[in-house]
């Protein structure tokens, strides 16, 4: 470690604890308390990355979350690898491994650097303009763009860390623990408010905590000493919860905050095991106090991006907090007094300041006089016009500013330096405030946007509210918090402040140069390589809205969301367009304030908890019997049961044949079940189904079709009358929750006069369907006491019964066209009853079948599946199901829509059967149906909705919707595929046993 | 994310609720007597106001009750919540 860059006496650095880490495969040393940035700087390293577009060498620019350049890849080649991490925020630990991103093969020699030489032909919008045409070239461009424009690498294996979410409810949440945040938290907590104080850093106190300057004092004590006592006091308050390393990512409406709490990122890897890495805090605060401070502005001049060019306040933080000098021959370049604080910190440590370049002609503050007294040359009314040095700045040239600041005059002077600190004044960090819906106003005097209209019970204090002087900060914090919390006791008697700074500033958004703008590279957005020239070009090309300019030039579109340069972009736009600041709007700051890891966002919802699924009571049997599963809504349903080496087709053919030849068994437990009771239950069903229900006898079942009010089919299922005022409705598996919701909606809002009660009982019952010519024999073995004769138990009827003394409901209903029974029994007996049926069916080759076979069997019968054969554009008439629409009923949901001018059109898409010319040819579901392939463009008549090879009919069958299909029976149509045209004939959608002989056969 | 004061349960997170479109649209008692245009008016036409809007909400992951809400869509301020069948307490 270069000893002359590291200074002692910082209490934030533990010099007895040396930490080794690797950066770009080289080992370095730092101390506990360092960030990766401070440790690299202590090793004399500024160059840490390459810029996105031109691949220019870039160095560490800041000391915080606003960092645009020093974004690195953390943990090379491990499951923890993480791109786009700001080196300024990473606390180093023993064994840390990090590398530069966006450079190849290395940061010092980067092939993409050629873009810098090509930059005259890479203006704003270049990618849009050039790579658009011809479209077929895109693949080639993309390869090179992606290779050279790395934005880091994502991990390729599962994240080993644990994350979690936590809710916090509090009276007052204070964001930011700088001087005003600390004061606000104390006032709130001491006045009985349950208070939460969060700060993104590992320590409290913000930038005042290391301020040892004689030029800023509170109650005659050095600011940092006064603040330390305050922090000591509040850390003992019971009413106050303090969270450091906690960054608020989002401030939503109704004072809902999302914050990321970092718990282990600063620990060596071996100490992280079984610990939560990051926690997403979901904070509901009755009141929010935003004290997020401000971000120093850079200055916009030619070649303002070289490694070694940094924010002046960052240089101060590095020396005061970490004891690290950012250079040995530093120049400061400023338009305001804060750079002189940096100068004082450097002077105190004996670090050479070559000069101070100040835009202002007149400088009148105690601190500037003190700096001058130390024999430091101040160039008043000057600006930097250029910088030199490829991998690190080594020289600048300066010129005198004209009176109006629009041009430069006189001779050019060159000055040597190895570090240039810039300060363009301060921008209030209003990001969270605007996220919450707050409206800003522009303050002309010092050219800042400050909070104006608060959308919720919140307040901004300190420099994020535009209060920059120490006296102003303290005075305004005290008075606004008293008012905001409606308290008498501020907890502070008198607070006297002394500040040697003056708030004067000479704001010039784009500093002039002796070169024409076209020949300069004055970066506004460092991360995305957007220059002042690009912004001016965008305006010349007609862009006016800041949101458009932003997208066209990519200003503010990086991972830092342009925290440094957005204000300059606005300033340059308004200067160029000759408008007032704020007229073009400000860009919208969107959450998160700083990037969140995916781990934090998902918390514990990973692996099997990512998307929870529901299992039927018989699930384990299906697993044990080799079932393949398909997802239906949240359910896992048995799809098919392959035997030996069967593929899906072979298994389904075998299952389908067995169900018709002898017996099949299906787990139908997932069907939605709604228990309907009440004296108006029949009337209710009359209103929600298309057919009539009043005359359904107790003990009978009926199929019902439910429409939306627009007349389109919504759901279907069999409903059984269990008693005078008691029904059980079944719905489709996927539609169960929505149907219940819809029925509740009508009951509560349209028909509150009806005496009807609804309960979802889907999970209460296991439902086992046994079908086929031998189903009767099997069920009679399982329930010997039940009379299954056609006279006593005909099709579409229901009986209460018992299996081993457990009550069950048996319905004789069929979705396959076969004689079949549905056994409904308390869920926890489902598996044993299923096994009983299997045992009873052994002699009859009872064959378990899954959803695929179920779909095939019903397709043979032309039964629709809502959601497969329908898509919310089909009426029952379109489905050729006119028989189920009651002509007599005065009203039901959707009735009026069935004869709107649109729904009675003859050429609507209608459900038909399709038979292929070649019976072995199975159509693709979703394939288009046409009549004339010579016509151009070819008219699409419809599409195939269901298609199977039927082992029972020994041919391919399909259902589809075709324009005017109802009247096309026997007509030839064409299914155009990629390599061939398939000839089909329109057929009756009922392919098998139209007369229902199987259903009614005497067994 | 809103905090919604369910008239039956009290204040709850928005994630427990489902929005259900414009409020105070009554289903016609005699749909069959309406012309296509009149029926379409009921069926399709909805306001989309920037400002104060009357909406239906459902406490779907709570008591499952439907209720009405007056919300200013420009700033998401909830002006009032009230039960189905009740008159809006604000204009
Ligand atoms: Zn409720």
Give me some keywords for this one.
heterodimer; A: alpha+beta; Ubiquitin-like (UB roll); FAD/NAD(P)-binding domain; 7-stranded mixed β-sheet; 6-stranded mixed β-sheet; 23 helices; 29% strand; elongated; B: 91 residues; mainly beta; Folate-binding fold; two-stranded antiparallel sheet; binds zinc ion
Could you characterize the architecture of this molecule?
- The complex is a heterodimer of chains A (1003) and B (91).
- Chain A is α+β, with helices and mostly antiparallel strands and 1003 residues long.
- Among the domains of chain A are: 3-117, 2Fe-2S iron-sulphur cluster binding domain, sarcosine oxidase, alpha subunit, N-terminal domain (Ubiquitin-like (UB roll), Roll), CATH 3.10.20.440; 162-294 and 428-499, FAD/NAD(P)-binding domain (3-Layer(bba) Sandwich), CATH 3.50.50.60; 317-421, FAD/NAD(P)-binding domain (3-Layer(bba) Sandwich); 508-599, Arc Repressor Mutant, subunit A (Orthogonal Bundle), CATH 1.10.10; 905-999, Beta Barrel (Elongation Factor Tu (Ef-tu), domain 3).
- In chain A, a hairpin with a 7-residue loop joins strand 42 and strand 43.
- The longest helix of chain A has 16 residues, at 470-485.
- The radius of gyration of chain A is 38 Å and the shape is elongated.
- The mean pLDDT of chain A is 93.
- Chain B is mainly beta.
- Chain B is built from one helix and six strands; from the N terminus they run βββαβββ.
- Chain B has one helix spanning 36-44; strands at 3-6, 10-13, 18-22, 52-58, 66-72, 77-83.
- The longest helix of chain B is centred in the middle third of the chain and has 9 residues, at 36-44.
- The mean pLDDT of chain B is 95.
- Classes of the chains: A alpha+beta (1003), B mainly beta (91).
- The interface between A and B is medium-sized, with 23 and 26 residues.
- The structure holds zinc ion.
């Amino acid at each position: 470690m270069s000893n002359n860059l590291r200074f002692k006496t910082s209490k934030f650095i533990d010099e007895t604890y040396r930490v080794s880490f690797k950066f770009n495969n080289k080992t370095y040393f730092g101390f506990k308390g360092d960030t990766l940035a401070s440790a690299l700087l202590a090793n004399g390293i500024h160059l840490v990355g390459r810029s996105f577009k031109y691949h220019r060498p870039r160095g560490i620019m800041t000391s915080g979350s606003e960092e645009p350049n020093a974004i690195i890849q953390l943990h090379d080649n491990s499951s923890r690898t993480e791109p786009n991490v700001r080196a300024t925020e990473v606390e180093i630990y023993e064994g840390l491994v990090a590398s530069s991103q966006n450079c190849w093969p290395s940061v010092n020699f980067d092939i993409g650097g050629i873009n810098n030489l090509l930059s005259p032909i890479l203006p704003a919008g270049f990618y849009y303009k050039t790579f658009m045409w011809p479209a077929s070239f895109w693949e080639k461009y993309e390869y090179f763009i992606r290779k050279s424009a790395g934005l880091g690498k994502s991990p390729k294996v599962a994240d080993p860390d644990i994350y979690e979410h936590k809710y916090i409810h509090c009276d007052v949440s204070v964001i930011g623990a700088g001087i005003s945040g600390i004061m606000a938290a104390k006032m709130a907590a001491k006045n009985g408010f349950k208070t939460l104080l969060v700060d993104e850093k590992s320590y409290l106190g913000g930038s005042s905590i290391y301020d040892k300057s004689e030029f800023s004092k509170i109650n005659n004590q050095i600011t940092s000493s006064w603040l330390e006592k305050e922090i000591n006091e509040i850390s003992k308050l019971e009413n106050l919860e303090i969270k450091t390393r906690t960054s608020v990512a989002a401030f939503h409406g109704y004072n809902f905050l999302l914050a990321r709490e970092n718990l282990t990122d600063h620990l060596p890897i071996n100490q992280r095991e079984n610990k939560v890495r990051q926690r997403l805090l979901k904070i509901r605060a009755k009141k929010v106090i935003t004290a997020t401070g401000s971000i120093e502005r850079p200055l916009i001049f030619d070649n303002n991006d070289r490694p070694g060019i940094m924010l002046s306040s960052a240089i101060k933080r590095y020396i005061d907090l970490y004891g690290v000098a950012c250079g040995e021959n530093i120049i400061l370049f400023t338009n305001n007094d804060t750079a002189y604080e940096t100068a004082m910190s450097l002077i105190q440590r004996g670090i050479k300041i070559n000069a101070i370049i100040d835009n202002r002609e007149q400088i009148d503050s105690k601190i500037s006089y003190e700096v001058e007294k130390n024999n430091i040359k101040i160039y008043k009314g000057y600006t930097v016009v250029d910088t030199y040095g490829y991998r690190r700045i080594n020289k600048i040239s300066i010129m005198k500013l004209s009176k109006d600041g629009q041009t430069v005059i006189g001779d050019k002077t060159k000055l040597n330096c190895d570090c240039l600190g810039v300060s363009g004044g301060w921008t209030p960090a209003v990001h969270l405030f605007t996220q919450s819906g707050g409206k800003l106003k522009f303050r002309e005097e010092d050219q800042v946007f400050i909070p104006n209209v608060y959308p919720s019970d919140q307040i901004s204090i300190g420099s994020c509210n535009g209060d920059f002087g120490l006296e102003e900060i303290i005075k305004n914090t005290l008075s606004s918090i008293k008012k905001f919390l409606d308290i008498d006791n501020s907890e502070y008697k008198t607070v006297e402040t002394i500040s040697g700074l003056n708030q004067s500033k000479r704001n010039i958004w784009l500093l002039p140069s002796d070169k024409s703008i076209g020949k300069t590279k004055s970066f506004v957005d460092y991360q995305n390589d957007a220059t002042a020239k690009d912004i001016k070009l965008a305006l010349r090309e007609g862009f006016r809205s800041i949101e458009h300019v932003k997208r066209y030039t990519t200003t503010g579109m990086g991972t830092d969301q342009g925290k440094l340069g957005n204000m300059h972009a606005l300033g340059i736009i308004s200067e160029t367009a000759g408008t007032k600041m704020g007229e073009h709007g400000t860009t919208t700051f969107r959450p998160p304030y700083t990037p969140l890891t995916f781990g934090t966002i998902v918390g514990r919802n990973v692996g099997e908890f990512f998307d929870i699924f529901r299992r039927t009571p018989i699930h384990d049997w299906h697993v044990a019997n080799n079932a393949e599963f398909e997802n239906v809504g949240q359910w896992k349903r048995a799809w098919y049961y392959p035997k030996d080496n069967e593929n899906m087709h072979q298994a389904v053919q075998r299952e389908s044949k067995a169900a018709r030849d002898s017996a099949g068994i299906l787990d139908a437990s997932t069907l939605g079940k709604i228990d309907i009771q009440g004296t108006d239950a029949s009337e209710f069903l009359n209103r929600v189904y298309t057919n009539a229900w009043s005359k359904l006898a107790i003990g009978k079942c009926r199929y019902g079709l439910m429409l939306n009010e627009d007349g389109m089919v919504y759901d279907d299922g069999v409903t059984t009358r269990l008693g005078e005022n008691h029904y059980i409705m079944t719905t489709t598996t996927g539609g169960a929750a929505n149907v219940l919701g819809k029925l509740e909606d009508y009951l509560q809002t349209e028909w509150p006069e009806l005496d009807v009660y609804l309960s979802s009982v889907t999970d209460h019952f296991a439902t086992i369907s046994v079908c086929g010519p031998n189903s009767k024999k099997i069920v009679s073995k399982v329930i010997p006491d039940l009379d299954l004769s056609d006279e006593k138990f005909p099709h579409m009827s229901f009986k209460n019964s018992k299996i081993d003394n457990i009550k069950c409901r048996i319905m004789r209903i069929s979705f396959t066209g076969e004689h079949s029974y549905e056994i409904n029994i308390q869920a926890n007996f489902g598996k044993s009853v299923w096994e009983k049926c299997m045992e009873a069916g052994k002699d009859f080759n009872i064959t378990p079948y899954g959803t695929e076979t179920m779909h095939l069997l019903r397709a043979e019968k032309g039964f629709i599946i809502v959601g497969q054969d329908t898509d919310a554009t089909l009426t029952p008439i379109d489905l050729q199901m006119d028989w189920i629409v009651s002509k007599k009923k005065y009203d039901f949901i959707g009735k009026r829509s069935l004869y709107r001018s649109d729904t009675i059109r003859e050429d609507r898409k209608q459900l038909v059967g399709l038979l292929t010319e070649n019976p072995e040819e199975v159509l693709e579901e979703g394939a288009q149906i046409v009549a004339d392939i010579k016509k151009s463009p070819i008219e699409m008549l419809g599409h195939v909705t269901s298609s199977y090879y039927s082992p029972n009919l020994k041919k391919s069958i399909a259902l589809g919707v075709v324009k005017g299909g109802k009247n096309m029976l026997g007509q030839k149509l064409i299914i155009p595929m990629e390599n061939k045209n398939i000839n089909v004939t329109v057929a009756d959608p009922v392919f098998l046993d139209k007369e229902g002989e199987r259903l009614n056969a005497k067994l | 994310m809103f905090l919604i004061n369910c008239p039956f349960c009290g204040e709850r997170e928005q994630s427990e609720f489902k929005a259900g479109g414009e409020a105070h649209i009554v289903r016609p008692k005699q749909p069959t007597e309406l012309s296509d245009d009149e029926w379409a008016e009921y069926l399709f036409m909805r306001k989309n106001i920037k400002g104060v809007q009357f909406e239906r909400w459902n406490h779907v992951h709570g008591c499952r009750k439907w209720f009405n809400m007056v919300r200013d869509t420009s700033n998401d301020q909830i002006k009032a919540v009230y039960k189905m069948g009740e008159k809006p307490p604000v204009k």
